[in-house]
């Protein structure tokens, strides 16, 4: 395309569009998968029908080889292309680590085509990236061209002015970042595009066309194209930072909730707290349970922050591997990494401090609960001992005095069974509350069976006594069964209230 002056401003204009996704894009029905399908369909609608590989549905194993370059060579999952008449168009779906990169190249190799037309052609088919989509890390648009010798020799200010006349939308501003023989500008994103969209302008002299191609599309034998690596890592960093900003208020609120839960445990378990011991025990155990839940949530958030920090550190290391020549290009991302690391450290320290305080309060609250349990056990044990002691004393007195209780013989078996069951049940009533609440499998079933048997014995005693009193037979098994069911239901209801 020609601009003001006797010679063209740029030669052989081309467009590279990129979409950066998580591996969720390979799962059918996901939002990221729908976006991947849209780009694939757009490429085929533009005539890229020569397929290379099938539709991607999983990440292949990573190649651990390489010669220490920028990145392992992307693992190509699938591609479609069209070539002819010197033009070359291709869409490649590749995997870099656990991410998916969709790259589209429109290279007509014809100076009659310009960036505006190429952009309209691609984005008109694929659609502009809009609102944030789960699984989509970002997108990018790279404008490529070669500079005629006369333009390449211009002073930087003059070159920016000449390029601004042919770049669609906001043009380049300021000095370019020189990466070898490639000059790179970060372009502003027009209104109406996704916040995660990037625009780059990359040009080189005709003599450096090979370097421009390798940096932008072809890559090297040692690794992926530097432009792809930079934009992919930058998209991941910005996505992580956006998520961190969104999670920030919730994380600070979580630290406050841990503190409030700890204060509640301290208030309920304090020495000055009033109320019946049983009620205090229930309230204290409820407060301890709520504190444990919020502490587990805080621990999960801390682990997530640690994973995010590791991810950002890996991204930072990758940016450094791009070399000193790209230092001016990766500066914004490195600043974002430092900001995110500071935020993670601050929030992590706040969560850790709240957890340490909560741990101390939980320890003191558990000690208070144990004291209440022991007091309850002592009272129940005293009551049990009193009942059994009085029965034993009465039996000893009867035996020593030779007294015969005037009780009908039909009633005696039921009375003996009831007293025996009572001696079995009373120890279970004296169990600590925490142990009783753990009776959920065999222990709880045995507990209910024991109380059912006790209820049956009570029913046997009642049925035999009533039958003797009325002088008519009663169905003792039926009455005993009803009492057994009632006793088991009542015991089960007690468990539900305590749970």
Biggest sheet features: 9 strands, mixed
Number of helices: 12
Radius of gyration: 39 Å
Order of neighbouring strands in the sheet with most strands? 2-3-4-5-1-6-9-8-7
| C-alpha termini separation | 78 Å
Shape: elongated
Strand-and-helix sequence, N→C?
EHEEEEHEHHEEEHHHHHHHH
Q: Name the helicity range.
A: 55-70%
Contiguous runs where pLDDT drops below 50 for at least 5 residues: 1-6, 63-71, 432-442
Oligomeric organization of the protein chains: single chain
Q: Please give the number of β-strands.
A: 9
Task: Give the class from helix and strand content and strand pairing.
Answer: alpha+beta
**Percent range for β-strand residues:** 5-15%
Q: What's the pLDDT, averaged over the residues?
A: 80
Describe the overall structure.
By secondary structure, the protein is of the alpha+beta class. The chain has helices spanning 31-45, 115-126, 149-152, 156-164, 209-218, 226-269, 277-321, 327-401, 412-429, 433-437, 442-470, 476-498; strands at 11-22, 50-52, 75-84, 87-96, 99-107, 136-147, 177-179, 182-187, 197-205. The chain has a nine-stranded mixed β-sheet with strand order 2-3-4-5-1-6-9-8-7, sandwiched between helices. The longest helix is centred in the C-terminal third of the chain and has 75 residues, at 327-401. The chain starts with 10 loop residues before the first strand and ends with a helix. Residues 1-6, 63-71 and 432-442 have low confidence and may be disordered.
């Amino acid at each position: 395309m020609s601009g003001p002056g006797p010679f063209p401003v740029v030669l052989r204009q081309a467009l590279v569009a990129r979409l950066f996704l998580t591996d969720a894009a390979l799962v059918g029905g996901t939002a990221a998968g729908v976006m991947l399908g849209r780009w694939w369909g757009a490429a085929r609608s533009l005539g890229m029908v020569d397929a290379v590989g099938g539709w991607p549905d999983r990440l292949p194993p990573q190649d651990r080889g390489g010669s220490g370059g920028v990145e392992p060579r992307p693992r190509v999952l699938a591609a479609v292309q069209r070539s002819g008449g010197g033009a070359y168009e291709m869409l490649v779906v590749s995997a870099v680590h656990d991410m998916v990169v969709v790259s589209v190249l429109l290279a007509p190799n014809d100076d009659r085509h310009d960036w505006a037309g190429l952009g309209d052609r691609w984005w008109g088919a694929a659609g502009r990236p809009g609102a944030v989509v789960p699984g989509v890390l970002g997108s990018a648009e790279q404008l490529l061209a070669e500079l005629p010798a006369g333009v390449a020799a211009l002073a930087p200010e003059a070159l920016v002015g000449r390029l601004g006349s042919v770049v669609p939308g906001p043009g380049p501003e300021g000095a370019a970042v020189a990466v070898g023989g490639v000059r790179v500008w970060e372009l502003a994103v027009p209104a109406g595009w996704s916040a995660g969209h990037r625009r780059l302008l990359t040009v080189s002299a005709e003599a450096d066309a090979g370097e421009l191609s390798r940096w932008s599309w072809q890559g090297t034998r040692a690794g992926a194209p530097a432009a792809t690596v930079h934009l992919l890592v930058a998209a991941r960093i910005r996505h992580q930072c956006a998520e961190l900003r969104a999670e920030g208020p919730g994380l600070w609120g979580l630290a406050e909730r841990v503190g409030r839960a700890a204060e509640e445990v301290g208030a309920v378990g304090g020495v000055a707290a009033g109320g019946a011991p049983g009620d205090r025990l229930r309230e204290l155990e409820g407060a301890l349970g709520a504190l444990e839940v919020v502490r587990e949530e805080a621990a999960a958030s801390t682990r997530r922050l640690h994973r995010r920090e590791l991810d950002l550190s890996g991204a930072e290391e990758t940016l450094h591997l791009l070399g000193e020549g790209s230092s001016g290009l990766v500066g914004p991302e490195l600043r974002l990494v430092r900001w995110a690391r500071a935020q993670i450290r601050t929030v992590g320290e706040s969560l850790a401090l709240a957890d340490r305080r909560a741990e101390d309060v939980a320890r003191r609250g558990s000690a208070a609960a144990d004291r209440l349990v022991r007091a309850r056990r002592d009272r129940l044990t005293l009551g049990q001992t009193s009942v059994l002691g009085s029965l034993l004393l009465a039996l000893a007195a009867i035996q020593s005095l030779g007294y015969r209780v005037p009780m009908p013989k039909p009633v005696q078996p039921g009375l003996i069974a009831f007293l025996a069951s009572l001696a079995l049940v009373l120890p279970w009533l004296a169990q600590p509350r925490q142990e009783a609440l753990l009776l959920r499998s065999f222990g709880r079933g045995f507990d209910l069976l024991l109380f059912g048997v006790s209820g049956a014995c009570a029913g046997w005693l009642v049925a035999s006594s009533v039958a003797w009193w009325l002088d008519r037979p009663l169905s003792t098994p039926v009455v005993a069964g009803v009492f057994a069911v009632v006793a088991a239901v009542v015991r089960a209801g007690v468990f539900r209230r305590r749970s």
